[in-house]
Amino acid sequence: AKAKADGVEGVIIRLGYGWGNNADKKAQRNISECKRFGIPFGIYWYSYADTPSIAKEEGAGVVAKLKRFGVRASDLAYPVYYDLEKWTWKGRQPPTDPNVYNDIVNNWYGALQSAGYKNLGVYSYTSYLQGPLKHADIYAKTTWVAQYGARMGFDSFPTNSRGWQYTSSGKVGGI
User: Fold this and answer.
1) Which of 42, 121, 143, 157 lies 20 to 30 Å from 102 when distance is taken between CA atoms?
2) Architecture in CATH for domain 2-165
3) pTM of the predicted structure, to 2 decimals
């Protein structure tokens, strides 16, 4: 209620990360509260995939959690985003080849699309998009970009429907 009173018009909720049972501890509550107060929402999933097969597992995990939390495709006002960033994990390395990343994205997309979730997108930050994610097919799916500062450095959005994360700080009542 406080978030809505503070003028929140929509949110993107972190569902979780990686593969397996890595749901965000607050995801279910955040989803329930958005539904209860009529706040439009979307979802994001932070990826640790370094192969297409792991991406498929991540996608299956997203579908399982969405179903467990009672989120139908029709509940989502905003996309389910695949959050691709340079991660660190002992003994593993994120891909550096855009073609490998494209296969990763396609496998994740396939897992969600086959379960009926069609409103999907890629999220990342400008320098990663201009490096390991520099692929026309990934750019065609990228609709939310982090670029801190006064200017957006990524200009390859597929449509005018897009999100720009320009800060990582801020406070909203009730959150």
Assistant:
1) 42
2) Alpha-Beta Barrel (3.20)
3) 0.90
Beta carbons of 47 and 83 less than 8 angstroms apart: yes
Average pLDDT over the chain reads: 90
Amino acid at 109: Y
* Residue 7 identity: G
Q: Is 142 left (phi over 0), alpha (psi -120 to 50) or beta?
A: beta
Task: Give Cα separations from 12 to 15, 42, 48 (angstroms).
Answer: 9, 5, 19
pLDDT-derived band at 157, boundaries 50, 70, 90:
low
SS3 17: strand
Which of 50, 59, 51 has its CA nearest to residue 16?
A: 59
Domain boundaries, the chain: 2-165
